[in-house]
Specification:
- By secondary structure, the protein is of the alpha/beta class.
- It folds into two domains: 211 residues, Rossmann fold; 139 residues, Rossmann fold (3-Layer(aba) Sandwich), CATH 3.40.50.
- The chain is 44% helix and 16% strand.
- It is built from 19 helices and 16 strands.
- The strands form four sheets. The protein has a six-stranded mixed sheet. The chain has a five-stranded parallel sheet with strand order 9-6-7-8-16, with helices on both faces.
- Strand 4 and strand 5 form a beta hairpin.
- The longest helix is centred in the N-terminal third of the chain and has 19 residues.
- The radius of gyration is 21 Å and the shape is globular.
- The two termini are 30 Å apart.
Length: 476
């Protein structure tokens, strides 16, 4: 299985090379040279343990880089826990048995709960697979990595939970100062592991993401630091996230497809649903739900992809103005013309935006619709949902609010809302909307008693380079 760059200027690489590198050397993102079938019949997708479906997806995209046994072992390490404690029935491990349970919320609507992992975020679903995958790949190669991560909130905590204490990895997490919730921050700053370095950056998420892209663009630094990334640009994240679309769609599909409402900022989660569809999952329309940082909704609805000023909202994980994974779907909509993608992104760098070619826009609209919700609508939706005894996080509420606005784009089948974070990650916002402050689950109830450790840096790539160089065990 080979992986090519979305900008067409880098040689094809293997699955493990793509995962360990994160980004292609020409500045593009890796995508598979062909779309493999899942290799599991639909009935078994709906009835198997989640780990079995994940193992098949991993093997399909890894090709000869992983044996079937290795893929099964990695998925088992990520998603299979011990049974509940017989004394009280409580789960002691990372996941409930269903991993990503579906809960019916209206006659034909469902909530896909993706927040049952160790950091209470959908990012755990992918990160818990990436951890053992890194271990295996680095052991095979006798190598180390410096993993960098820009995060608007949830990616950082999930990366810390997945990579803390791993011998061959040093993790550097960049987060915008004052732009994440206290719970989100503490999942990044309380790991107590020597290989985890939490960095608060004086800037917004886009500044953090620009620094990370700059680190990769400096080829000498990237090579000497053995740099890799676990943001949603990493192909392993996409593979892992595509699995819950497979499971949910096959579980609910009787006739036609299943529509998904996806709170999105960096577009990785929504793109993962499209990937599942390419592998045969009965996915209908994917609705992109954005907050006031609505670059994706504007792009899909107007045809103009244009960066704006980042706004702080009640759904901070979506406070993004440059959606990195949009490059992957643009590559597909342009018939995989890497040179055309490169020209458009050069225009974005120069002028802050570009017009999506009409034929490409038509293809995008065949699979995606989009709507946005502001903070007032988010709070109203959270209050309304709580009346049905279904407390939701503000990101999930953006999805609820977007559903009615995009109703005309739905296909008529079951509708699944992605519940991307546990409401307890945003206790102040939930309390403001509902009057009730959600408690943390028992497995992380001591989060605010754990000591914090983090460093503060300016929004300057050179300062971050020095910091990594002084601390990375991979530096050569």
């Amino acid at each position: 299985m080979r992986y090519i760059s979305t900008r067409g200027g880098a040689p094809a690489v293997s699955f493990l090379d793509a995962v360990l590198a994160g980004m292609a050397p020409d500045g593009g993102l890796y995508a598979p040279a062909r779309w493999p079938p899942l290799g599991l019949e639909p009935r078994r997708v709906a009835t198997s343990h989640y780990a079995n479906v994940a193992a098949h997806a991993l093997k399909a995209f890894a090709g000869d880089d992983l044996s079937a046994d290795e893929a099964a072992q990695l998925a088992g390490d990520a998603y299979i826990d011990a049974p509940p404690d017989p004394r009280d029935g409580a789960w002691r491990g990372k996941w409930p048995e269903a991993v990503t349970p579906l809960r019916q919320v209206r006659t034909a609507d469902w909530l896909l709960e993706l927040f049952h992992g160790p950091s209470l975020s959908f990012k755990d679903v992918a990160m818990q697979l990436i951890g053992p995958l890194y271990d295996l790949a680095l052991q095979k190669r006798g190598a180390r990595l410096s993993v960098v991560c820009a995060t608007s909130g949830d990616t950082g905590g999930a990366a810390v939970e997945a990579l803390k204490g791993r011998e061959r990895v040093d993790l550097f997490v960049l987060t915008p100062k004052g732009r994440v919730s206290d719970v989100q921050r503490r999942f990044m700053t309380t790991a107590g592991a020597a290989n985890v370095h939490a960095i608060e950056v004086e800037g917004d998420f886009d500044a953090c993401q620009a620094i990370v892209k700059g680190l990769f663009a400096d080829s000498d630094f990237a090579a000497r630091a053995q740099l890799s990334g676990v943001n949603s640009i990493n192909w392993a994240r996409i593979v892992a996230q595509s699995v819950y679309y497979q499971v949910a769609a096959h579980a609910l599909c009787a006739h036609g497809g299943v529509d998904f409402i996806v709170p999105t900022g960096n577009f990785g989660d929504a793109y993962s649903g499209w990937v599942a569809k390419q592998m045969g999952a009965p996915v209908g329309r994917i609705v992109l739900a954005t907050n006031a940082n609505d670059i994706l909704a504007r792009a899909l609805n107007t045809g103009r992809y244009e960066r704006g000023a980042s706004q702080a909202t009640l759904s901070p994980a979506m406070d993004i103005q440059v959606a990195s994974n949009f490059e992957r779907i643009l590559f597909e909509s342009l018939d995989r013309d890497g040179a055309a993608v490169g020209r458009l992104y050069a225009r974005l760098a120069q002028s802050g935006g570009f017009d999506i070619p009409p034929a490409a826009l038509e293809r995008l609209r065949a699979d995606f619709a989009a709507a946005h919700a502001d903070d007032a609508e988010t709070l109203q939706t959270m209050a309304w949902s709580a009346q049905d005894d279904a407390a939701i996080c503000p990101h999930t509420a953006v999805g609820y609010a977007a559903r009615s606005k995009a109703a005309g784009a739905l296909t008529g089948g079951p509708v699944v809302f992605l519940a991307t974070a546990h409401p307890a990650k945003f206790p102040e916002t939930v309390e403001r909307a509902t009057g009730e402050r959600p408690p943390l689950p028992r497995k992380c109830a001591d989060l605010f008693a754990r000591p914090e450790k983090f460093d503060s840096l300016p929004a300057d790539a050179k300062a971050v380079q020095r910091y990594i160089r002084e601390r990375s065990r991979a530096w050569s």
